[in-house]
Design a protein that fits this description.
The chain contains ten helices and 19 strands. The chain has helices spanning about 5-10, 120-125, 155-170, 205-215, 250-255, 270-285, 295-300, 310-330, 360-375, 375-380; strands spanning about 20-25, 25-30, 40-45, 50, 55, 60-65, 75-80, 85-90, 105, 135, 175, 180, 195-200, 220-225, 230, 260-265, 290-295, 335, 360. The strands form five sheets. The protein has a six-stranded parallel β-sheet, covered by helices on one side. Strands 3, 4, 7, 8 and 9 form a five-stranded antiparallel β-sheet that branches. A hairpin with a 2-residue loop joins strand 1 (about 20-25) and strand 2.
Amino acid sequence: MDFHGFYTGKIFDAYQYLGAHITDAGVVFRTFAPGAQKVSLIGECSQWREYDMNRVYDGNFWERYVDSVKPGSMYKYRIYEKSGSCVDHCDPYGFGMELRPNSASIVRDMNSYQFHDSAWMLSRSDCKNRPLNIYELHFGSFRKPSERADDWYTYEEMADILIPYLKQNGYNYLEIMPLNEHPCDESWGYQSTGFFSPTSRYGTADQLKAFVDACHQNGIGVIMDFVPVHFAVDGYALAQFDGTALYEYPHAAVGVSEWGSLNFMHSRGEVRSFLQSAANYWLAEFHVDGLRMDAISRMIYWQGDPGRGVNLDAVKFLQYMNRGLKTLHPTAILIAEDSTSYPNVTKSVSENGLGFDYKWDMGWMNDTLDYCRTAPAYRGMNVTVKSPCA
C-alpha cells in the first residue's frame, strides 16, 4: 500500500492491504488503529482467545498472520484504549459480517468467484448517448418468501425473480438501496457498520457477484447506493474505533447528523482513503455499474444547511473521488442524490464541477408518485407535477 497516499487521502485501494486476506500460508489480518495501546485478534481461529497483533510500518497499523483459517471464519479486533479498557470491534475493511444483532466480521475469499460478463463490461457506457431506464428498489422488500419481517430471498434467488420482471417492463438498469452491512432493518442500509461487507441478510459476497453477473448476462446494469456521509453509532463498528474519533468529528456540533448517526470527517486523509477505497471496491470487485451517492447535500453544506456555508473539505473530497473513480472506471455511472440548488453538480471536475454524471431528481420523482397515487378526480386540485427540466 502507498502509506503516504493513505495518510493524504489519495488512494483507492486500501482494502487490498487492510482487512483479512487469504494467502498461501493462511490469513493475514491488518487494521489501522493509531490511538490504540494494544490490539488483539479474537475469533474462531483462536477459539475466541486473544492473539496479540504486532505494530507494523509506523506503529499505527497492526498485523497478525494465522495459518489454517478457512473462508467463513468469524473474527473481531479487541482494541485496547489508552485508558486500558477494551472494546471488541468488527473489521472496518472486512469483506463479510454476521447478521445483526451479531457483529463479527467474516473471512471471505474475494478471488473465488469467476465472472462471465466480459461482453457487458466491454460494451457498457454511462448512457449519456443511449436510453437509460432505471428501476429503484430495496432488495429485502421488493418481494419476500413470507410475511415474516426477517424472511428474505437470497441474492441468487432474487436474480430469478427480479430479472424477468425488469425485462418484461423495459428496464435496462437497476438501482438498489445500500447493500452494505447495517444493524437496523428500518434504515434500509443507510446507516452502515460494514462499508466493505455485503449484507448477510441475502447471502455472501460470491452470491452478490453471481447476482450482478446474471443481471449483466441479461442486459441489465446494476447501480448501488453508496453512503459517503455518515455511519452507524454502534460501538462495535467505526465509532471511536481506536478509542479516539478516528473516522468521525470530535465535536457533536458537526459530528452528529440529523439521523443520529456520525458524520465522516472528510478533511482527514485516512477517512478519504477509506471512502474512496470503498467506492472503488464495489465497482472493481463486484462489477457494479454505478454508484448513487446518498445525501450529497449534507456534504456540500455543513449539516445540509446552506445557511451554515459550504463544507469546502467535503466538496474537494467529492471532486477528487469522482475524478479518480472515472479514471479507474470510465464507463461507470456516478449519480448525486442531492436536493439542493448547488451549481455544477454534473459538470466535470476540470470545469470546477463535482464530477457526477447525473443528479437524482427527487422532487420530480416524488411529485410523480404523488400524482399516480392520487385519485384522478382530485389530481388537478391537489398535485402539481413539475417538469423534469424545471
